[in-house]
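--- STAGE predict ---
source: upstream dedup step, 1 unique chain passed
mode: sequence only
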Amino acid sequence: MTLDAVTLDAGVVDEFCRGVFPAQGGLACYEYVNCDVMTPPWGKRGPPALVLTVRLITYEDDGTTRMIRDVKEQQVVFAGAAEPLERVQAYLAAFVDILSRAFDAVGDNTTWETLMPHDFVHADVLTLKTAREKADFVKAFERPSRFGRWLARGNNASALPPEDALAPPKNVDDDKSL
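--- STAGE serialize ---
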């Protein structure tokens, strides 16, 4: 992919993200800081991508006061730069919705305190050919291999999910249906 194949405009995505973030609930918040369309400078060099700087904030609540426990800020690749804008917007809106629901469902902060912002991103959902609208992406995010494991836990959860639950599905090609 060359820079000529870039369809995402960082300014348009920035304005959209400022309107849809943060994802928040329970004792956690996932905030948008800024974005850029660039070739990520870390890891294996690849094509240009949509890179969001995001912040994961966890809180403690002693019953009378809510205090910040931890703040982690990180640049994360969310999508390829050639993805259509409307599809990325639907993906991001679904991401914020489902992550807010997961934060509420779990309720505590012990689940989130050892995770980094990139642990929440499931860019493999963008490879699904049938996902076009926010509802399609929400349905894909609800799978147990993504956010479904947290949504199903409810407010009685206190342990982290199994380590392999944080990994994307082993074979994305097997997951062409939502």
